[in-house]
């Protein structure tokens, strides 16, 4: 769930990082480090906005409670991550990335390997079991929240509204403007579902077939570039039916906008936390990941901003109102879970094909 | 008329341009600026150029990837088209505004200049989202059209080319107005009076004397707006549709999402060349005008 490139820029990557408070390479002090005199301030790169505020207040608080270390926020930007790692001047210690990005073997050099000595085994095992085998925990990343692609729509739209992806692509029966994510991730799956492909035979993705389907929408489709953008499409009225991330349209309903969410056949995935290669506080970065996947921290952030947990043990502590808004409350209706390993290897070529069809 | 031509000539005679730029004795003042330009512009540029040539299997691999695909060629063409349209619209709006600012009372002038610069006080991102809220179907413009009964179906003003042009023109307007205003302030009003004494009507004064003499400002404004618009990616990303994607957006995607910096560098180099060509044409045009005026005199 990327913010937006623009959003990332806006947050401006306030480069001033309290450069590595002291040398805390005191390996001897061991984990737990409750008695250690020196505390570190680590930098957590996320998608900004209210989401990162809530993560700082929940994950960050747990991190400080558990380790005594502090955390400050900055904006994530993959380009900057690569630049830092390439130049050896790494100022981030933990960072949110999309599932496919964590899985891409080409990116493996950007991440520290998971330090299992800093990660609670129960929490890690619980997260690993929260999604398809091998997806949620990799050699260098741990899923930190889940989300899904679903359909937001305006309730004041005249005429029938699409109830599933087949309807969404049927312009004759369901006239109205569509909104799609401006990159292919998840959109290919949705187009193939609409074209009659079952989830069992989804991968490897038939990209050409999906793009033909997207092409069939013609000019009645608008593309959004950020979560805020997708919300504005629904509120501003420039699209009637929009593929959105869960929560995004649900909170509009709570705000009293004439917007509702259709969760049937939603397409699930997760974002991951990583520690950038060469982080000066790699140990504390791992501890931050450990704090983020604590069931209580996961439940706290879910209750605050309806960010669906990656750790299923949080489920019992989440209130019903939040649950109804989130991907994790609609797993039964999901079509399936995105194959991030496939996307990791093929993202670039799919993006180029997608651009060729959509942009030209 | 003759007077105007003479002014043009005097200006071009004052040409030994270089010595004037580097006054003797204080030449060293130059050094920090040159160092800054080299470190901040030239070095990164060379890095980008080298990366575009060295990151593929062969030196031209990235470039054949760029020119071998309809995608990049058509987006480049579109980008140049949008930049030209923005430049033309900005000039159309900016020239009269600069004229007003240059010829009005000092107090009104201060106000007009402050007004045109004021958008810089607000972040571009906020302004662009502001346009989105204002211009959307359910936004202020749509509401006004409905309430006043002008239109029940307000036109789509964002997520399309119109939205991109509105956003880019608003962004560029000060960059067009300021150089034109500067040129207009240098204009000697007595030239107009002299022309009128010799029987020239207001239209002739404007087209034969005023406009040619303020042309350097126009060319400077156009060059700045064109070059800056070429590289823009935030405005088209927010206010445009997929069909309005500009090359800057594809470069940003390669830099920040796919991390394919080789291709990004090749695309950036292509954009740079397009900017240089545009710049050369504007420059050539302004030179050409001077030559024409001179020969006519």
Question: What's the topology here?
Answer:
The complex is a heterodimer of chains A (360) and B (297).
Chain A lengths: L4 H7 L29 E6 L2 H19 L2 E6 L2 H10 L6 E5 H5 L17 H8 L12 E14 L10 H4 L9 E4 L5 H8 L12 H9 L5 E4 L2 H10 L4 E5 L2 H7 L4 E16 L7 H11 L2 H11 L14 H6 L10 E2 L2 H19 L2
Parallel strand pairs in A: 1-2, 1-3, 5-6, 5-7, 8-9
Antiparallel strand pairs in A: 3-8, 4-7, 4-8
Helix pairs in contact in A: 2-11, 2-12, 7-8, 8-14
Chain B lengths: L1 H12 L3 H5 L8 H25 L6 H7 L2 H34 L2 H12 L6 H12 L4 H8 L13 H26 L2 H9 L4 H29 L3 H6 L7 H10 L4 H36 L1
Helix pairs in contact in B: 1-14, 3-14, 4-14, 5-6, 5-9, 5-11, 7-9, 9-11, 10-11, 11-14, 13-14
In short:
Chain A is an alpha/beta fold. Chain A contains 14 helices and nine strands.
Oligomer: heterodimer
Strand content of chain A: 15-25%
Low-confidence segments of chain A, given as residue ranges, are 3-36
Please give the count of helices of chain B: 14
Q: Mind telling me the C-alpha Rg of chain A? A: 20 Å
**What kind of sheet is the major sheet of chain B?**
none
Q: What is the ordering of alpha helices and beta strands of chain B?
A: HHHHHHHHHHHHHH
User: Quick check: average pLDDT of chain A?
Assistant: 89
The chain-level structural class of chain B is mainly alpha
- Kindly provide the radius of gyration of chain B, computed on alpha-carbon positions and rounded to a whole number of angstroms: 23 Å
How many angstroms does the end-to-end distance of chain A come to? Answer: 25 Å
How does the helix and strand content of chain A classify structurally? alpha/beta
The proportion of strand residues of chain B reads: under 5%
Measured as a percent range, the helix fraction of chain A is 25-40%
User: Number of helix segments of chain A?
Assistant: 14
């Amino acid at each position: 769930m990327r913010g937006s490139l623009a959003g990332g820029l806006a947050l401006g990557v306030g480069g001033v990082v309290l450069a590595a408070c002291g040398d805390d390479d005191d390996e001897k002090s061991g984990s737990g480090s409750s008695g250690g005199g020196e505390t570190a301030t680590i930098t957590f790169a996320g998608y900004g906005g209210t989401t990162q505020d809530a993560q700082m207040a929940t994950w960050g608080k747990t991190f400080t409670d558990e380790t005594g270390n502090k955390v400050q926020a900055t904006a994530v930007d993959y380009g900057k991550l690569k630049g830092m790692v390439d130049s050896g001047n790494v100022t981030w210690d933990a960072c949110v990335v999309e599932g496919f990005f964590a899985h891409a073997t080409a990116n493996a050099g950007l991440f520290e390997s998971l330090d299992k000595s800093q990660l609670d085994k129960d929490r890690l095992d619980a997260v690993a079991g929260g999604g398809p085998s091998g997806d949620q925990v990799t050699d260098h990343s741990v899923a930190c929240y889940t989300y899904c692609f679903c359909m937001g729509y305006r309730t004041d739209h005249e005429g029938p509204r699409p109830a599933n992806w087949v309807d969404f692509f049927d312009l004759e029966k369901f006239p109205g403007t569509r909104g799609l994510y401006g990159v292919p991730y998840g959109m290919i799956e949705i187009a193939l579902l609409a074209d009659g492909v079952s989830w069992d035979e989804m991968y490897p993705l038939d990209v050409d077939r999906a793009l033909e389907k997207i092409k069939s929408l013609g000019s009645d489709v608008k593309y959004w570039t950020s979560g805020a953008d997708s919300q504005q499409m629904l509120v501003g009225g420039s699209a009637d039916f929009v593929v959105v991330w869960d929560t995004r349209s649900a909170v509009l309903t709570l705000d009293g906008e004439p917007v509702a969410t259709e969760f049937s056949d939603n397409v699930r995935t997760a974002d991951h936390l990583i520690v950038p290669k060469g982080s000066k506080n790699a140990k504390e970065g791992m501890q931050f990941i450990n704090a983020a996947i604590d069931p209580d921290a996961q439940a706290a952030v879910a209750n605050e901003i309806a960010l669906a947990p990656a750790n299923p043990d949080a489920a019992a502590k989440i209130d019903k109102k939040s649950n109804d808004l989130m991907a994790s409350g609609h797993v039964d209706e999901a079509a399936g879970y995105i194959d991030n390993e496939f996307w990791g290897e093929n993202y670039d070529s799919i993006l180029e094909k997608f651009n060729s069809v959509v942009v030209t | 008329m003759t007077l105007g031509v003479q002014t043009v000539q005097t200006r071009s005679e004052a040409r030994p341009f270089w010595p004037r730029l580097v006054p003797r004795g204080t030449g060293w003042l130059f050094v920090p600026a040159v160092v800054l330009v080299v470190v901040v512009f030239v070095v990164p540029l060379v890095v980008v150029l080298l990366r575009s040539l060295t990151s593929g299997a062969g030196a031209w691999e990235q470039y054949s990837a760029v020119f071998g695909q309809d995608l990049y060629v058509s987006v480049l063409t579109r980008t140049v088209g949008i930049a030209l349209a923005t430049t033309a619209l900005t000039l159309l709006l900016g020239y009269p505004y600069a004229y007003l600012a240059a010829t009005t009372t000092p107090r009104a002038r201060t106000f007009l200049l402050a007004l045109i610069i004021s958008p810089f006080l607000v972040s571009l991102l906020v302004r662009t989202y502001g346009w989105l809220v204002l211009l959307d179907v359910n936004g202020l413009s749509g509401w006004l059209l409905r309430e006043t009964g002008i239109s029940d179906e307000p036109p789509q003003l964002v997520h399309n080319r119109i939205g991109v042009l509105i956003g880019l023109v608003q962004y560029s307007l000060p960059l067009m107005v300021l150089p034109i205003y500067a040129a207009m302030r240098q204009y000697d009003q007595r030239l107009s009076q002299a022309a009128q004494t010799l029987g020239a009507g207001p239209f002739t004064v404007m087209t034969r004397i005023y406009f040619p003499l303020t042309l350097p400002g126009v060319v400077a404004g156009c060059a700045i707006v064109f070059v800056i618009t070429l590289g823009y990616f935030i405005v088209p990303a927010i206010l445009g549709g997929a069909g309005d994607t500009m090359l800057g957006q594809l470069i940003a995607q390669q830099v920040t999402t796919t991390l394919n910096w080789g291709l990004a560098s090749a695309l950036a180099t292509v954009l740079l060349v397009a900017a240089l060509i545009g710049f050369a044409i504007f420059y050539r045009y302004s030179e050409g005008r001077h030559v024409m005026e001179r020969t006519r005199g």
